[in-house]
Amino acid sequence: MNRLNRRELLQSAGLLLAAAPLSAEAPAAAPDSAYDWIRSTRILIAEAYNPPFYPSLDYDPAKAVRIARELNADALRYPAASYYAYFPTKSGFPVHPELQGDPMRRTVDLCHEAGLKVVAYVPLNHPFMEVTSKDPRFAGWSKKFADGRPMTTEHYGVAEYYEGCLNSPVREVLKALVREVLVDYPVDVLYFDGPYQGMQNARSYCHCRYCEAAYREKLGRPVPNQEGKVSREEEIAYTNWMAQDVVIAFLHEIREMIRRTRDVPVLFNDTSLLSRREWRNRAIPVVDGFMFEAAETPEDKLFNLQLGQSTGRVTWTYVGTHTQYNREHLKDERVRGWFSYPVESQELLLDGATAIAAGAGLVYWGLARFFYQPDGPLAYESGRYVKEIFDFQQKHEALLRSVRSRPQAGILVSAQTIDWYAGKHFVSKAYENGAHGAYQALKANGFEAEPFLDWQMSPEWLSRYEMVYAPNAACLSDAQCRMLAAWVRSGGKLLATHLTSVADEYGRVRKDYGLAELFGAEFVDPQPVEIPDLYLKLPTGEEIPQDPQILRFRARGGRVLAETIDRGHRAVLGPAIVQQDAGGGSVIYIGSSLEAVYEETRMKRLRSFLGALVTPWLAPRRSYEIDYQPGVMPHFMASRDVLLLHLLADTGNKNKHLRSREEFLPVANVKARIRVPEGRRVHSVSLLRAGAELPRTVHEGWLDISVPSVWIHEAVKVDLA
Ligand SMILES: [Zn+2]
What we know:
The protein is of the alpha/beta class and about 725 residues long. The protein has 20 helices and 34 strands.
């Protein structure tokens, strides 16, 4: 097998740093209980970008801790700073003008007296410098356009802020801020928002004198001017320099300072995981865990959380933030709605259940929703829902911590394509539809899948899976192509679609697929075409909907499983799907993003077609089977002695207005079969929500179950003897 070592892989992905080498290996498990605790948290956030901290400071530590206890939280996240610091800092970070005494110390003391942990929130260069401030230092700390103008941003609709530059003296101020929090306060965990290098101008190159000097020292030339033409090579050089040498190196430096000073777990905010030319997902190896804030749908949230779990790092998620006010009619979207009112409805329960099913730490956002209310949090529907979510997590903590996902398939999430691919028909904001569609199509057919990041791929990593789904992974390096080919020859099953491997890891288009030999295909043109009313013609003669965007190719050794028919022009456009065996494995290549069409349409015929393609590969070792019911999403977890099938029922009245309030209906009579591991017997079957026992009906190694009703979430627990 053609194996790459880790160093070669990292080099090929541009990951090895000269200045700040990062360990890609997981750190040894520390015995400290905080490292254990972060795996199943129930945190209440005190957020400071809005009331009761900003613009006016109304915060009251005793009230906050009382609310946290009533919600059954086991920790409070205190904002050491937001636009201002909320403790008497000597770091140079501006202090809130209304600050009196030390509410951070009081909060930490009260929390620890009540048995709650404290997570300190520290923003790392999150914009904080109000442009109307008289502080003379701010001008020198800001990011600059090529003509010297400072870059500014809005955030929550209250004020405008300078964007700070991490190469400026603000870097030392932030380090001092972190050190002060760590040394002077016995907080249990440090949580970083950032490091940021701008917000609205995050992708604008910085021309401040510090950046110009540092860039010249590293690369011997000035920072490229985006007003003019910037070559791909310059873009690659600047982007990697800013991500690796500046931003991730800064986070690494801070992480190591904490390790040396007082070692506590460090997590950071990886808001949405995948954003173009972002550094965030590449920083995962530096920290102990990270937070996915939110997704627009429960299905996307489960995908994100599982992608997070795949990294081996702790994953946290907000419970409650995608229930923001929709605000479509507002002129300034950043104004948002009300963060200081208990606005959520039943979707909060589904958000919580999704996080619990995925095995994530729960973080409720936040304190502000109850702080100003006349009654305690449990007087409000959303307060009772938060407590219900926290109670469930606490009651089943040992079980939830013991189980892990058992994916048969890995979904290759192409962060490289998001960063670098720039083809004519590429719609970056819809790119994730492919990965989400692959996940949904597999889930809907009862096959467990795990998304993973392309740059983390290694031979060891691939050996976790029976099958890899590469949905439109346009950008793959030569080394990654070789790795996939070797994995297939050693028995792996690969389903690759559309532009997969047409370009290298930086989006430089190849003369043919990097995986041409493996696919048994060669492309006619690296750019796809878009034509209405295309169909897949199957060997049976049946015509089923084809993606209207196809990549035309010729078969070169692969068996043709379907052709593309252009109904309007009565034309056959050539092969659409080919399959080829290689060594002990097999490859199916689809020259379109059929899974994105499934995500966008949920057409039954596509669901069954995609299921049928992979069934011969996956059915022999599947963990469960489930009758498809619209909106019901299975999620299977297991430990040595327990099988746990979560059923998430997203069956509500959400319409095209995302973030409107939502209510749900129960789903009746959900039928499934769970495979009993060889050599084991079923000791008992129970429902975690309903609390009921189910009959142990086992036929030929399969346990038949029927769940009478699922309202939002149920989990079938099978104890093995
Ligand atoms: Zn700069």
